[in-house]
Specification:
HU Protein, Chain A, 3 helices, 5 strands, about 45% helix, elongated
């Protein structure tokens, strides 16, 4: 499912225009993005939790030369599915 497909489904289920549903979907994604930028968790009960995970610095290998390279620590977005979502998918 693409973002355009999601907008179309939201428009049908919520009886909205395509423009209104596109703005609603964009607002939700924007709110989640802004919260993660600040380092907050976003908990959607019954769906899951979006959070920022920290990855430690590590040593890797350049696949072309085999030389060791340092990979710096960084933050990555993460998602953990909630019980209800896991149950539906099974």
């Amino acid at each position: 499912m693409t973002k355009a497909d999601l907008v179309e489904v939201v428009a049908k289920k919520a009886s909205l225009t395509a423009k209104a549903s596109r703005e609603a979907v964009q607002a939700v994604f924007g709110a989640v993005t802004d919260a993660l930028k600040k380092g907050d968790k976003v908990v959607v009960t019954g769906f899951g939790t979006f959070m920022v995970r920290s990855r430690k610095a590590r040593t890797g290998r350049n696949p072309q030369t085999g030389a060791a390279i340092n990979i710096p620590a960084r933050k990555t977005p993460g998602f953990t599915a909630g019980k209800a979502l896991k149950k539906v998918v099974r």
